[in-house]
Amino acid sequence: MTAIESLRTDPGRDVRRVVLYAAGLIAVYIAAVVFVIATHSEKSPSTGILFIMLAPTVGALLARFAGPGVIQWGRPSWWIFAGLLPTAGVLIAYVIGSSVGVAVANYGVLGRALIFGVISIVIASISALGEEIGWRGFLWPLMRGRWSFGVSALVMCVVWWSYHVPLILVGWYGSLAGLGAFTVAIIGITLFIGVITDRSRSVWPSVIAHGAWNALAATGFAMAGNRAVVGFTGTALWVGEFGWLAAIASLAVGALATWWHLSRPMPVVQTAVS
């Protein structure tokens, strides 16, 4: 190990890295909010939200070079397909929900949505990458180097939830009425993505999991991103990212994955970092 590699992995510099990471993230977050207000685009803040999605990566890059720290990139592997499991769980929940009357299945639209699903996931994963480099590329491995899976998941859940909540409170994202269900969904997806990040030692499965969720699960399985043409409809109480069907499915998948992960110790291998 070279001197710079030793410096980048020195635990004594972790506080410095976290401070730099948080400073970069918060600075971009605030700049994006100011942009939305200055351009009077509060009713359609999509550009500002896109900037906010880049905030974790800006923080990670700042910590990477000025820390100096590590971003765990890893290599694509079959674990990227495991990233589709939360979305598959939501699909099952929606089908069950439609059978008991809390959702309406539009199977013609659903079939087309699934056919075009790969395109939708790829597009959504590009924007999700802006978050995941920061969340699971930098912050998660840093925490796992110090803490247990449970403590790391708790901290990540609080951070990720806090990152979304200001946007919900000002009405730029989601629904305040659905905050309870969204919180449960965050817990489930945090657990699940933590598992596949630990197992793959790579950021890419989390990117696919996040992208698939945003493209399909959060939209009621919209066709090619058109949220006016969806595979499942129903009240906001049950359907959508802030609905209870997605929340329950996310928590179930996350809990099962966590049980499996903790009951099967991982082999010790070299982690790919940069």
Describe it:
With 274 residues, the protein is mainly α. The protein folds into two domains: 1-70, no CATH class; 73-262, no CATH class. 66% of the residues lie in helices and 4% in strands. The chain contains eleven helices and four strands, in the order αααααβαααααβββα. It has helices spanning 3-8, 14-38, 46-66, 79-82, 85-99, 107-115, 117-144, 149-169, 179-200, 204-215, 244-262; strands at 104-105, 222-223, 226-230, 232-233. The protein has a two-stranded antiparallel sheet with strand order 1-4. β2 and β3 (226-230) form a beta hairpin. The longest helix is centred in the middle third of the chain and has 28 residues, at 117-144. The protein is globular and about 60 Å long. The two termini are 13 Å apart.
Structure summary:
This protein is mainly alpha-helical and 274 residues long.
Key features of this structure:
274 residues, mainly alpha, two-stranded antiparallel ribbon, 11 helices, 4 strands, globular
Task: Indicate the proportion of strand residues.
Answer: under 5%
- Percent of residues in helices comes to 55-70%
N-C termini distance:
13 Å
The beta-strand count equals 4
Strand order of the largest sheet: 1-4
User: Over all CA atoms, what is the radius of gyration?
Assistant: 19 Å
SS-based class: mainly alpha
Mean pLDDT across all residues, rounded?
93
Oligomer: single chain
